[in-house]
Amino acid sequence: MQFRRSAALLVAAIAGSLALTGCGSDSKAGSQDAAGGGSGKRTVTDANGKKVEVPAAPKKVVTLSEPTLDAALALGVQPIGATSGRGQSGVAGYLAEKAKSAKIVANVAEPDLDKLSAMRPDLILLDETVGAKRVQDKLKGIAPTVLTAKLNAPWKEAFSATADALGKKADGEKLLAGFDKQVGEVKGALGGNAGAVTSVIRWQNGAPSVVGKGKGHVGDTLAALGLSRPKGQQGESIGHSEPVSLERLDSIDGDWLFFGALGDKAAGEKGLKEAGGVPNFNKLKAVTKHHVVVVDGSAWNSSGGPLAAQAVLDDIKSAMTKKS
To answer: What is the value of pTM for the model shown?
Structure first.
């Protein structure tokens, strides 16, 4: 509930403009149509530096990655097709309520080209976090296709590129400005937790994996808040997650430990119970200080976007601005 309220506040600043720039005939699209000689088309540059002609006001958008789905929903666009979340049959859990009308036409490994084609989309969005990147030529045969970001691109850059492809660049800038303002407010309220060593892990198959390194929505948000990371969680990630040996549990310790699983918060609670039975886990400093925070792994472990980043910020605010 806290996340839904905060997400609503995040987009409230652009609600007026979104009402005018919906996926139908909006004022922005109208000006773009005029600039394009009434063609209803505009040109954007994708992550490969290629020019792509896209609809000025797309009405049937398919998002083939978690970041592009997250971005579209944050901007008030309802995709008709989407990818399933990691380890989930539907969209990433934290997006499920907002993406009820989206049909699953892909997973992170590959898209179902037949299902996708049958939907007759007018715009396809993806990035290099998913296997669909390998079949871009086939996707382009179905509808204009925009690769919004390279692998490990900063999440804000990826979001801005998606906003541009949707004809909502200005709205995206307003949304990011609102988020950055919230980050500043939370940072100022950390008190005794300012600069705290903050660990983020996913519990899977009886062991932890490090997530949220680099410039993704987790690492970027922690850095913006001035929070530090354990030594093993610094620098760029070599993959979406990095397994940690049970013999090296001390490497995931910190002043705070944000703990999730490949699923929702209930899955995280189940994982924490399992972790409690692992030798030495209960000796970790974060555990003894009662500074373990179970989170919605579908948001924290996703590839990221403004809604995922908002969930991360909300969890940090709730946990770390209450006690020092």
So the answer is: 0.86
